[in-house]
Design brief:
Layout lengths: L1 H18 L9 H13 L7 H25 L1 H4 L7 H20 L6 H21 L6 H22 L3 H7 L4 H5 L1 H26 L3 H19 L9 H27 L1
Helix pairs in contact: 2-3, 2-6, 2-12, 3-5, 5-6, 6-7, 7-10, 7-12, 10-11, 11-12
């Protein structure tokens, strides 16, 4: 009976974590850490474990809010589809806006993936501003933010190819639904080429070393694999490309960058 009671107690928590896809936090969270640690390495600012905890809470909380809102707002559509300083406080409405707009974007634009990209761009920029308290010298964070936004927006294009027929039937807007699966996959590949270029630029801007460039080599291989296994006529491995490959990119690139930054501290 105790085991049954424990399972019953945990069921609501498990349902909530499943609802918001908490495991998807691995995509953008490492890059918020990277931005914060880079800001520390480039100036007099220090990042404490408390700072990293707050960044984690902010990132996971914002993503959870956005995902929960998306699930609740889209519940009728999904039912038919198979499936912290003063500066940061002042800018917080700008960070929250795309999180609120995104769940509605598919109702009025064929490019909701772009809104998602804007929402994800906030992480690295916000982490940098949280550490420094100023926009001065924050350009590298904007470059990293743009890279993360395009990366996530790009693989969201791949993910959206699964729902083309249903989206067209019920009037949901997306790039695959409007322009076709082939166009969406090409657009995703272009986004990831630009993403890679921005990662290179970021590394040059902040003077990262051999570990970072090794990480980018691994990232290039992962991107190539992701786009090789999904074809317009074969979408059976979309989930592998969407979650497995990109989850690996986020964790691996952060690990390489962290090794590089630790070596310079």
């Amino acid at each position: 009976m105790e085991g049954v009671r424990a399972v019953s107690t945990l069921a609501p928590a498990r349902s909530f974590l499943s609802l918001v896809k908490i495991e998807h936090s691995v995509f953008a969270l490492p890059f918020a850490y990277l931005s914060a640690l880079t800001a520390m390495a480039r100036g007099p600012h220090r990042v404490t474990w408390g700072d990293l905890l707050l960044i984690t809470v902010a990132m996971v909380g914002a993503r959870t809010f956005a995902m929960a809102a998306n699930r609740i707002i889209d519940r009728h559509i999904d039912a038919r589809t198979a499936l912290l300083n003063p500066l940061c406080l002042a800018l917080s409405p700008l960070a929250v806006l795309p999180l609120i707009v995104y769940p509605y974007a598919k109702r009025f634009t064929n490019w909701p993936h772009g809104i998602l990209a804007l929402a994800q761009m906030v992480g690295p920029v916000g982490a940098w501003l949280a550490v420094t308290g100023t926009v001065r010298g924050s350009f590298p964070a904007w470059v990293l933010g743009a890279a993360v936004g395009l990366w996530i927006g790009g693989f969201d294009l791949i993910y959206a190819t699964q729902d083309v027929e249903v989206d067209r039937e019920i009037g949901v807007h997306s790039v695959p639904a409007r322009y076709g699966v082939r166009f969406a996959l090409v657009a995703s590949a272009v986004a990831h080429v630009v993403t890679f270029g921005l990662f290179v630029w970021y590394g040059v801007l902040v003077g990262l070393g051999a570990w970072w460039w090794a990480g980018l080599l691994v990232t290039a291989v992962a991107f190539g694999y992701e786009h090789a296994i999904v074809r317009p006529g074969d979408l059976s491995r979309v989930n592998r490309a969407f979650f497995t490959a990109n989850g690996f990119v986020g964790i691996a690139l952060f690990a390489f960058a962290l090794a590089d930054l630790i070596g310079r501290l």
